[in-house]
């Protein structure tokens, strides 16, 4: 087992597209999965855009169901992940000293932002996974602080994965849905926002990076690129969980790029 596991942020895109072997991100996630499995993580903590609760909540089912959204055409995937009460307990134990209120949720399954990428990264479902919710306040400072409180889990063999989208321009999404023959590229607003975030993550010191990410709503394009924050907030949790990686140099790299129906599929890896 690697002494310190990575922290990752990935874009999960549209379910039907990501599930297709023809999708570039699908193939990349499968290749990345081979690398991650070689690191032999003891467990996975996943934060997705599609689990939001009044207080932070952690799944505790040992056999979590795969949750879907009614009316969305989800692919048929045979994936049976394992949960872990023990890992959920460790998550809660790390949040308690930071005075972050969190609860256990024994009935919640894994949403598609979690189980769909995980089905490609860990298709055997043999590494236990728990999912941590976002919090309905969508406060960036709080979500970054949650990540910082959970960073020690990485030294306990836990892989931290955030799943969302670096950009989520609904207008571009709807435009490409109406015109399937249009080039599937990021719009100008999304390109500007992605370039700004990438510079923060890969070229800034720890103070500048944390300050910039937690003030992402000050960006001039954010009201269009992220009308709501849930697809961006998983990145703040992951970046918070990589605070110590900044000591001695920036260890964040963009490891994947691309667009899917106008949504950014950029991915970032923090740490070893």
Topology (elements, then pairings):
Blueprint (H helix, E strand, L loop, with lengths): L6 E5 L3 H4 L5 H15 L4 E11 L2 E4 L25 H11 L6 E4 L6 H10 L7 E7 L4 H11 L7 E7 L5 H9 L9 H16 L2 H9 L7 H4 L7 H8 L11 E5 L2 E2 L2 E2 L2 E4 L2
Parallel strand pairs: 1-6, 2-5, 2-6, 3-4
Antiparallel strand pairs: 1-10, 7-10, 8-9
Helix pairs in contact: 5-10
Short description:
This protein is 36% helix and 19% strand. It has 272 residues and is an alpha/beta fold.
Question: Overview of this structure, please?
Answer:
The relative contact order is 0.22. Helix 5 (140-150) packs parallel to helix 10. The longest helix is centred in the C-terminal third of the chain and has 16 residues, at 188-203. The chain has helices at 15-18, 24-38, 85-95, 112-121, 140-150, 170-178, 188-203, 206-214, 222-225, 233-240; strands spanning 7-11, 43-53, 56-59, 102-105, 129-135, 158-164, 252-256, 259-260, 263-264, 267-270. It is built from ten helices and ten strands. It has a single domain (7-270), classed as LigB-like (Protocatechuate 4,5-dioxygenase, Chain B, 3-Layer(aba) Sandwich), CATH 3.40.830.10. It has 272 residues and is an alpha/beta fold. The mean pLDDT is 92. The strands form three sheets. It has a six-stranded mixed beta sheet with strand order 5-2-6-1-10-7, with helices on both faces. It has a two-stranded parallel ribbon with strand order 3-4. The protein has a two-stranded antiparallel ribbon with strand order 8-9. It is 36% helix and 19% strand.
């Amino acid at each position: 087992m690697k002494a310190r596991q990575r922290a990752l942020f990935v874009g999960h895109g549209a379910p039907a597209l990501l599930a297709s072997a023809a999708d570039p991100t699908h193939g990349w996630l499968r290749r990345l999965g081979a690398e991650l499995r070689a690191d032999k993580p003891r467990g996975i903590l996943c934060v997705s855009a599609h689990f939001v609760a009044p207080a932070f909540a952690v799944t505790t089912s040992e056999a979590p169901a795969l949750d879907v959204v009614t009316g969305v055409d989800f692919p048929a995937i045979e994936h049976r992940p394992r949960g872990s009460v023990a890992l959920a307990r460790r998550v809660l134990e790390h949040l308690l000293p930071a005075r972050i209120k969190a609860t256990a949720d024994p009935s919640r399954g894994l949403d598609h932002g979690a189980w769909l990428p995980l089905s490609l990264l860990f298709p055997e479902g043999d590494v236990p996974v728990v999912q941590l919710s976002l919090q309905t306040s969508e406060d960036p400072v709080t979500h970054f602080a949650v990540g910082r409180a959970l960073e020690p889990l990485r030294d306990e063999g836990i892989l931290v994965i955030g799943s969302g989208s670096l950009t989520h321009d609904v207008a571009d999404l709807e435009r490409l849905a109406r015109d399937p023959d249009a080039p599937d590229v990021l719009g100008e607003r999304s390109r500007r926002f992605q370039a700004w975030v990438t510079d923060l993550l890969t070229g800034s010191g720890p103070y500048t990076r944390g300050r910039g990410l937690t003030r992402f709503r000050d960006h001039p394009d954010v009201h269009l690129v992220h009308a709501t924050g849930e697809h961006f907030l998983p990145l703040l949790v992951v970046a918070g969980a990589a605070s110590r990686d900044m000591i001695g140099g920036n260890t964040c790299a963009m490891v994947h790029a691309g667009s899917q129906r106008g949504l950014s599929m950029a991915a970032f890896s923090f740490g070893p």
